[in-house]
Design a protein that fits this description.
Distance between the termini: 59 Å
Shape: elongated
Strand order of the largest sheet: 8-13-12-11-10-9-14-17-18
Oligomer: single chain
Number of helices: 18
Largest sheet: 9 strands, parallel
Length: 501
C-alpha cells in the first residue's frame, strides 16, 4: 500500500518533493524503492499509535490511530465516521465546490470525500510531512491522487494556505474540515491558520458591506470623473496629463522606494526627508502629504484611492506641481483638480460591472493596471511601488497602532483638524483619548517585543502586508520605526543606516 501511494504521490507531486528536499528513494528504508517505509519519514510510536479497529473490510481490520491519549478515528467503524464527516462537510456549505482538510489523521475522511465528490477540488493541509507519509503507510490514498483538482500543502505557512484558498475560488466556495483530535499535534499552527481564515472572512464581509454602502457614491463619482479625464486628455485642463499605472511597470527598477504613511512615527523621518529623496523614490499617501510638504519636500508620487469626500480633504488646498497623483476613477471628483504634473490612473477597485457601467468604460479601465488594495491607502502604495519595479520598500509612519499612545503624525490633516476644532470644553487631548479607546482596542507587539495598542482593523492591514511578503519574496519591506506594530516579513532599518548606504 505504501509503495503504491508513494508512486502515485511522486508521479503527481514531484515539485513538492523538491520543495521538501527529498527524493522518492529517500522514503524507503535503505533507499530501496518498493521496500519498507523509511522510519525517518514516519511519526514515532510516541507520537502516534496505529491500532486495528473493530471494522473489517476484505478480511483485514481497518486501521485507526491514537495520539495524545485521544483516538483520531473511531475504534468501531472509522469508515462510517469518515463518510459522515465528508457528508457533513458538504452540508455545511452546499454551494461549495472545494473542501480543505486541516489535518486528517490517517486520511479516512479525505479518501471518503474524494470518492463521494470526485468533481470537487481538495486542499490538504499538514505542517508535519511525517504525519502525511505515516498516513500513506496505513490507508489507500489512490482515490485522492486520482482527483483532477487536488492541492497538498505540506510544511506551508498559514498565509500560503489562505492564498491557496483564494486562488481556488475563495472561502465562499470552500467547506473546511478541522477535527480537534487530528490537529492537536500542531495546535499553534492550526490556531494561527484559523485566525487568518477568520480575518479573510471579515475582509469578505467588509467588502460586501462596502459595496452596499458606497455603490451610489462610486457611480456618481465615476460619471463626473469620466468627463474630467476627457477634459484633461483634450487639453481643456492644461498643465497635466493622464497616464496609466501600467506605464510605470518596471520603469523604476533598481531604486529603493520610501513610502510615507501618517502614523505618529512619521515625525522621526521628516527632518531627513530631503536627503532621503536624493536616494529613493518617495511615495506619500494622501494622509501624509501635508506633513511632507511642510518639510519642504514634494514627493515623487501621491497615492489617493478612497472615493469619500474625507479622503479629498487630505489634499484639499495643497499643491505639489512636481508630483504624480496616483488615483482611480471612483475618487472624489475635485481630486482631479489637484495641482500636480500628472495623474496616473489604476484600474478601479470598485466592481464596475456590478455598477451597471458601459462595457467600453469597463474595458478601458481594466487596461490601466491593477493595484491591490488591502483596505488602506498604504497597501495600495506598497503595491504601486512593487509594480514600478521596487525590490526594497521602506515605510515611515506605518505604525498600525498607537506607539506611545499617539494617534497621528504631527502636521497631518487628522491632527490639524483636531486642533482646529478643539475648545476649552472639548480639547485635543479628549479627542485623542476617544480615538484610542473608542474602538475595540487590543494589545500586540512592536518590533522590539514591546506592547503597542492596536485594533482588529489595523491588524488586518498587517496581515495583508504579511501575505504580500510571502507572495513576493524578492521584494524586501522595511519599517523605519521599531515601535510600530510588528509585521511578519518586515525588517527594521534606521534612517541613518539608509542614508549611509
Amino acid at each position: 500500500m505504501f509503495s503504491n501511494n508513494v508512486s502515485l504521490f511522486c508521479g503527481r507531486f514531484a515539485p513538492l518533493l523538491d520543495f521538501l528536499g527529498i527524493s522518492e528513494s529517500d522514503l524507503y528504508d535503505g533507499k530501496k524503492v518498493g521496500g519498507s517505509p523509511n522510519p525517518d519519514f514516519l511519526l514515532s510510536k510516541e507520537d502516534i499509535e496505529i491500532l486495528p479497529s473493530r471494522q473489517v473490510v476484505g478480511g483485514m481490520p481497518v486501521p485507526t490511530a491514537k495520539s495524545g491519549g485521544k483516538f483520531l478515528h473511531s475504534l468501531y467503524n472509522p469508515i462510517r465516521e469518515a463518510d459522515a464527516a465528508a457528508e457533513n462537510a458538504k452540508k455545511s456549505n452546499p454551494s461549495s465546490s472545494a473542501c480543505a482538510f486541516f489535518g486528517f489523521g490517517l486520511g479516512h475522511a479525505v479518501v471518503s470525500y474524494a470518492k463521494k465528490y470526485p468533481n470537487d477540488s481538495l486542499l490538504i493541509v499538514e505542517p508535519n510531512p511525517k504525519a502525511f507519509f505515516t498516513a500513506l503507510s496505513c490507508v489507500d490514498w489512490s482515490p485522492v491522487f486520482s482527483l483532477k483538482n487536488v492541492v497538498i500543502a505540506l510544511a506551508s505557512g498559514a498565509d500560503v494556505v489562505v492564498s491557496l484558498i483564494e486562488k481556488l475560488g475563495g472561502l465562499e466556495k470552500f467547506s473546511i474540515v478541522s477535527n480537534p483530535a487530528q490537529t492537536q499535534h500542531a495546535s499553534a499552527y492550526f490556531s494561527a491558520l484559523n485566525s487568518q481564515i477568520e480575518r479573510n472572512r471579515d475582509k469578505d464581509r467588509i467588502n460586501k458591506a462596502t459595496l452596499e454602502r458606497f455603490s451610489k457614491i462610486w457611480k456618481r463619482n465615476i460619471a463626473r470623473n469620466l468627463n474630467m479625464v476627457e477634459s484633461i486628455e483634450c487639453g481643456r485642463m492644461s498643465g497635466r496629463r493622464i497616464s496609466s499605472v501600467r506605464d510605470y511597470e518596471g520603469k523604476l527598477a533598481g531604486r529603493p522606494f520610501v513610502v510615507l504613511a501618517a502614523g505618529p512615527s512619521l515625525a522621526e523621518i521628516l527632518p531627513f526627508l530631503a536627503d532621503v529623496k536624493k536616494k529613493a523614490v518617495v511615495v506619500a499617501v494622501d494622509t501624509a502629504l501635508r506633513a511632507c510638504l511642510r518639510s519642504g519636500v514634494e514627493p515623487d508620487f501621491v497615492v489617493l484611492c478612497d472615493p469619500q469626500y474625507y479622503a479629498y480633504r487630505h489634499v484639499a488646498g495643497l499643491s505639489s506641481p512636481s508630483s504624480v497623483l496616483v488615483t482611480e476613477l471612483a475618487a472624489y471628483p475635485p481630486v482631479f483638480r489637484f495641482p500636480c504634473r500628472e495623474i496616473s490612473l489604476s484600474s478601479s477597485n470598485c466592481p464596475l460591472e456590478r455598477l451597471g457601467l458601459p462595457e467600453t468604460v469597463v474595458a478601458v479601465d481594466r487596461k490601466r493596471g491593477v493595484l491591490s488594495s488591502g483596505g488602506s491607502v498604504s497597501t495600495t502604495a506598497w503595491d504601486f511601488s512593487r509594480l514600478c519595479g521596487a525590490t526594497e520598500i521602506y515605510f515611515a509612519g506605518l505604525d498600525l497602532g498607537f506607539p506611545k499612545n499617539e494617534t497621528h503624525a504631527r502636521g497631518s490633516t487628522f491632527e490639524e483638524a483636531v486642533h482646529s476644532s478643539s475648545s476649552r470644553l472639548s480639547t485635543a487631548e479628549t479627542s485623542g483619548v476617544a480615538s484610542l479607546f473608542g474602538a475595540n482596542m487590543l494589545w500586540d507587539f512592536d518590533y522590539e517585543g514591546g506592547r503597542i495598542l492596536t485594533d482588529n482593523r489595523m491588524k488586518m492591514f498587517a496581515w495583508w502586508f504579511e501575505s504580500r511578503c510571502t507572495d513576493y519574496p524578492d521584494v524586501k519591506s522595511y519599517s523605519f520605526s521599531s515601535k510600530s506594530l510588528r509585521i511578519p516579513g518586515f525588517s527594521v532599518a534606521s534612517v541613518e543606516e539608509f542614508l549611509s548606504r
